[in-house]
Amino acid sequence: MIDLSENECINVLLDDYIGNLGYMANDIPYVIPITYFYDQESKCIISYSAEGHKIQEMRKHKNVAFNVQEITSITNWKSVLAHGTFEEMDRIDAKQLLHKFSDGVKSLILKKEHKSTEFINEFSNKLYSRGIPIVFRIHIDEITGKRKEA
After folding, report:
1. Residues near 58 by beta carbon (within 8 Å), at least 6 away in sequence
2. How many CB atoms lie within 10 A of CB 17?
3. CB atoms within 10 A of CB 28
4. Buried (b) or exposed (e) across 72-100, using 16+ Cβ within 10 A?
5. Which domain of life is it from (predicted)?
6. Where are the extended beta strands (E) located within 26-75?
7. pTM greater than 0.90 (yes/no)
8. Which domains does the chain have, with CATH numbers?
9. Whose CA, among 12, 39, 60, 62, lies 20 to 30 Å from 143?
């Protein structure tokens, strides 16, 4: 295995929109997949969710982990692990970040899958019927990565 440089790690984050969020609840670690957008300008991961377990627990325990993997085969893969801090957004900041998230993910889907999407529910399963979406970002404090190539 080879260590990835910080720039290589950032490129992995930039090139995908599904990752795994790790957070703690009652001394138990949880890891769940989420749709995200990496905002290079702020060096943050942007996402959103309905009110629920992960949001409630991240409000209590702001330190989180985030992992993205690009796996081609058992001998050809990249994995990035970021440690950071949860921040819940509100009002106009939340609206602006949700717009940035939506536009960013749509652009990635078009680039990678050659598929045009119009609405956020085409690539993210959170429905507004469950209440107002909670927009959050993860400020990255540390980022590391590995790769394996045959």
Report:
1. 23, 64, 86, 88, 136
2. 23
3. 8
4. eeeeeebbbbbebebeebeeeebeebbeb
5. Bacteria
6. 28-35, 37-39, 44-49, 63-73
7. no
8. 2-148 (2.30.110.10)
9. 60
- Residue type at 37? F
Place of tokens 């994995």: 79
Return d(Cα 20, Cα 65) in angstroms, integer: 8
- Residue recorded with tokens 């989180």: 64
Residue with tokens 């990678």: 112
* Phi and psi torsions of 110, nearest 5°: -65, -45
Per-residue pLDDT of the chain (150 residues; tens, 9 = 90+): 899 999 999 999 999 999 999 999 999 999 999 999 999 999 999 999 988 999 999 999 999 999 999 999 999 999 999 999 999 999 888 889 888 988 888 888 777 766 666 555 555 655 555 567 899 999 999 999 999 988
Structure tokens at 32: 């769940």
Tell me how far apart the alpha carbons of residues 32 and 22 are, in angstroms, rounded to a whole number.
7
CA pair distance 123, 86, nearest whole angstrom: 23
